[in-house]
Design a protein that fits this description.
mainly beta; about 40% strand; Immunoglobulin-like; five-stranded mixed sheet; 32 strands
């Protein structure tokens, strides 16, 4: 029997294979609400790759309890398929299944018992055995760490073993299915044969192996981020380029925002970083669809574009996944910017969400998952520091209401040149031209109250011009049309 384990939502999940048949088992943990309450148990069921995963857990910490009985059913049927914490997934039809668990646990105070039955369902969408390979040995295109998922963390082994060469597999399928592939005889530090890292099966670990990851991308359960760290643990932090922006109700505003992800600092550096993957939680309801862009090539701490491999992908409903790894077997030490996140917020939606009594809200970006590794795959400690920007409801884009009506940007549409005229008394300002994806494409300073700038190097399309003076920001939509 081959066994392996991983932590899902903080719970140890054991998956075993006997003669190519997939088994799984689970443990139960309790949540301490107060000393007289019962532990609040919950079953979480989902499918990861070709494995149906069921775990009984609670997000809180506490003692571990064994269920008094377990019953597995095909949904709607009375016949019990199994009565043990593990179920052999052999010769089962596709469909919806149910697991019910009885448990008898003491109260938090230890006085009396909590007796309850909880049930959950899960889907079997495809066969759990393969005619071509033993299940644990199958290659699923995009799953480089052999955890039966393709996600942001699968980029890190590609960077660590970039350029390795081995035996190609037969066929060119990228479909999410178990494929037979010859062993390379070289394993990662985690014990995974490099045939799994060769996602596209061409016998070379390289840039093209990103494609199957993106094609088969899975929403994932991020491991919980630690809350306690060793002394002198460097930070990984989110910093917005502006502290606040003004939101004008009913102005049809589209406001470009940039947030930078920084790793370590001048006073507390990080040694031997080779790759990093993380998830950022943000409110996509405020964001213009399609406007989120990740820039990880502009003077990144991890290297320039020819020194790294990277992906970014939205997962679940409110997460942005990012992974960046070096590819030259040389780690970096020090500190610096890892990536920039550019996006555009929709002013009217934000304005409607601001309570009248407050006049502002904060837009946070928070770390939801994080893994940083050195060249050997050892995980490095980083302390996540979240960031936010203040969104302020205003009646004018600038401090003096008359300025808005007196700022003149013409001609609009433009054939390649713009004149920006500022009112008397308004301090000279800087400007940025932002494309519709929220990415700055041109920056500069206005040297007089009437300045001419050329945008002839840009492609035809719709842009935003952002003027910044002191603490005030003015944004207007412009069109380049030749």
């Amino acid at each position: 029997m081959n066994t392996f384990w991983s932590h899902i939502n903080g719970i140890k999940l054991t998956v075993a294979l006997v003669a190519g048949v997939c088994l799984f088992s689970f443990s139960i943990s309790a949540k301490h609400l107060d000393e007289f309450t019962c532990p609040n148990f919950e079953i979480v069921s989902n499918v990861s790759g070709n494995i149906a995963i069921n775990s009984i857990y609670n997000s809180g910490e506490g003692g571990v309890f064994v269920p008094t009985s377990v019953s597995w059913y095909f949904e709607g049927a009375a016949t019990i398929l199994g009565e043990a914490p593990t179920l052999v997934l052999e010769n089962l039809d596709k469909g919806t299944y149910q697991v019910c668990v009885d448990y008898d646990a003491p109260t938090i105070s230890g006085e009396g018992s909590c007796i309850e039955t909880i049930c959950s369902t899960f889907e079997i969408e495809q066969d759990f055995t393969s005619d071509d390979c033993d299940f644990l040995d199958c290659v699923f295109p995009g799953d480089t760490d052999n955890d039966f998922q393709a996600n942001v963390y699968d980029v890190l082994p590609i960077g660590r073993y970039f350029g390795e060469v081995g035996l190609p597999r037969t066929g060119e399928s990228y479909q999410w299915e178990g494929l037979d592939a010859p062993d390379w005889g070289i394993t990662t530090s985690e014990g995974v044969d490099l045939k799994h890292v060769d996602c596209n099966g061409d016998g070379i670990i390289g840039m093209e192996d990103i494609v199957p990851i993106m094609m088969n991308y899975h929403n994932k359960n991020n491991p919980p981020i630690a809350t306690e760290f060793p002394i002198n643990t460097p930070n990984i932090s989110i910093s917005f380029e502006m502290d606040s922006v003004n939101i004008i109700p009913d102005e049809n505003q589209y406001i470009p925002i940039r947030a930078n992800v920084y790793c370590a600092s001048h006073n507390l550096t990080l040694d031997d970083l080779y790759g990093i993957a993380f998830s950022l939680k943000m409110n996509f309801d405020f964001i213009l669809p399609g406007s989120v862009q990740v820039d990880n090539t502009r003077s990144s701490f991890l290297g320039d574009s020819d020194e790294i491999i990277a992906i970014s992908q939205r997962s679940n409903t409110d997460l942005l996944d990012v992974a960046i790894s070096r590819i030259n077997r040389t780690p970096v030490s020090g500190f610096g910017r890892v990536a920039s996140i550019d996006f555009t917020i929709i002013g009217d939606i934000v304005a409607r969400s601001i309570p009248p009594s407050e006049g502002h809200i904060y837009f946070p970006i928070e770390f939801d998952g994080l893994k940083a590794v050195n060249l050997s795959g050892q995980q490095l400690d980083l302390r996540p520091v979240n960031g936010s920007i203040k969104l302020v409801k205003k009646t004018s884009q600038v401090g003096n209401p008359k300025f808005k009506s007196e700022i003149d940007i013409f001609p609009n549409p433009s054939s390649g040149n713009l004149r920006i005229s500022l009112p008397d008394g308004m301090a000279l300002t800087s400007y940025s031209i932002i494309n519709f994806e929220g990415r700055p494409v041109q920056n500069g300073e206005l040297i007089s109250q009437h300045s001419d700038i050329s945008i002839d190097n840009l492609s035809n399309g719709v842009y935003f011009i952002r003027l910044t003076s002191n603490d005030n920001t003015y944004v207007e939509k412009i069109q380049l049309l030749r």
